[in-house]
Write a structure and sequence with these properties.
Layout (H helix, E strand, L loop, with lengths): L1 H18 L9 H8 L5 H8 L5 H8 L1
Helix pairs in contact: 1-2, 1-4, 2-3
InterPro entries: tRNA-dHydroUridine_Synthase_C
GO molecular function, one term: oxidoreductase activity
Protein name: tRNA-dihydrouridine synthase
Length: about 60
């Protein structure tokens, strides 16, 4: 699980670095499900992750 969280954070960080303010961060949300699909409690976690609006929000929720 930890490795996938780290990859998710790296993916989101790269998205943020490349697209920054030019694309809405919500674009990355469609990939979140793939990263956490088989985790215990994935449904609740996914609901919380869908509420994030920035890379910083994502980091604070996962860390």
């Amino acid at each position: 699980e930890e490795e996938r969280f780290n990859i998710l954070l790296e993916h989101a960080k790269l998205f943020n670095e490349v697209w920054g303010d030019t694309k809405n961060f919500s674009v990355i949300k469609k990939y979140i499900k793939a990263y956490i699909s088989d985790f215990e409690g994935a449904n609740e976690l996914r609901q919380r992750l869908m509420m994030v609006n920035s890379y910083e929000d994502l980091v604070s929720l996962i860390k």
